[in-house]
Amino acid sequence: MTGATVRLPDTAPADDGARQTGRMTTVDLNSDLGEGFGRWTLGDDEAMLDVVSSANVACGFHAGDPASIRRTVGLAAARGVAVGAHVGYRDLAGFGRRDIEVPSAELRADVVYQIGALQALAAAEGTRVTYVKPHGALYNRATVDRRVADDVAAAVAAVDPALVLLGLPGTLSLAAAEAAGLPTAAEAFADRAYTPAGTLVPRGEPGAVLHDPDVVARRMLRLVTEGVVEAVDGSVVRVPADSVCVHGDTPGAVAMARRVRAAFDDAGVALAAFAPATSGA
Predict the structure, then answer these.
(1) DSSP character for 173?
(2) DSSP string, 92-157
(3) What's the rounded Cα separation, in Å, for the pair 169 and 6?
(4) What's the distance, Cα to Cα, between the start and end of the chain in Å?
(5) How confident is the model at residue 252 (pLDDT cuts 50, 70, 90)?
């Protein structure tokens, strides 16, 4: 693979490498896209795809329908943007952000189904799915619940063990993926606040979502140059990351992503997908 450092099974510990200890020369920028229905879109996918290097595309369970998903994948393919399966709970009404208790067999089948659907749409647009990122409540649950983390990892491995699992560093989600033999990549969130423990501040709490593009850009530039972000209490937290996420549904998301990318460009940090479709993985 090219681009940022992606952890493969049986590699060096997570605190080794440029992403943890020094200035990064390349980084991935990702966004959650394909979350519309028909001609209605939640965000501006086309504009965002001119900025990011990886697209986490909804697979129909938390958002998206076949037509809107295929359109987003086609736009990504035309721009050389990597396509990832953004899998979630079957929860259109709650946008996949409600924690749902799903039995293992059902959850594994749901994840396999979502990846397969996106793979078919990607093939129809001349590209392929190269990574998987859980969405919303499934993402959060997999960071702390080993059973759910194992179910997601097992489902991804059953489809294609070369698919990269993208997730929060230092969590059960990535540990389970590595145990299942999957390559992994760690991400930081541009538009989210962090706790002193290095976890995300829950969305329901004040200040959980950041909106000022300049503030966000400065935070992410510090992340790629120093490997740290400032937590809500003012402390400094080390956050190893191969990729930076800007949520596509955050108000002003495109402007924020452009500002972050401009800060990277000005600092000489190149944008590169951690799992490009042109790689041999």
Answers:
(1) H
(2) TTTTT-S-----HHHHHHHHHHHHHHHHHHHHHTT--EEEEEE-HHHHHHHHH-HHHHHHHHHHHH
(3) 12
(4) 7
(5) confident
Instruction: Show the tokens assigned to 111.
Output: 């994840």
Q: How far apart are CA 134 and CA 82, in angstroms?
A: 16
Strands 236-238 vs 164-167: parallel, antiparallel or unpaired:
unpaired
Domains along the chain? 18-271 (3.20.20.370)
**CB within 8 Å of 154: residues ≥ 6 apart:** 108, 180
The continuous run of DSSP H or E covering 222 comes out as helix 213-226
Percentage, residues of the chain above pLDDT 70: 89
Cα–Cα distance for residue pair 207/183, rounded to 1 Å: 33
Residue 7: phi, psi to the nearest 5? -80, 125
Residues 6+ apart with CB under 8 A from 211: 191, 250, 251, 252, 256
Structure tokens at 143: 């960071």
Question: In terms of Cα–Cα distance, which of 210, 158, 212 is closest to 180?
Answer: 158
Is the confidence at residue 150, as pLDDT, over 70? yes
Q: What is the pLDDT of residue 243?
A: 97
Residue 12 has pLDDT above 90, yes or no: no
Contact 155, 111 (CB under 8 A): yes
List phi, psi (to 5°) of 82.
-65, 145
User: Closest Cα to residue 188, out of 164, 217, 167?
Assistant: 167
Structure tokens at 1: 């693979």
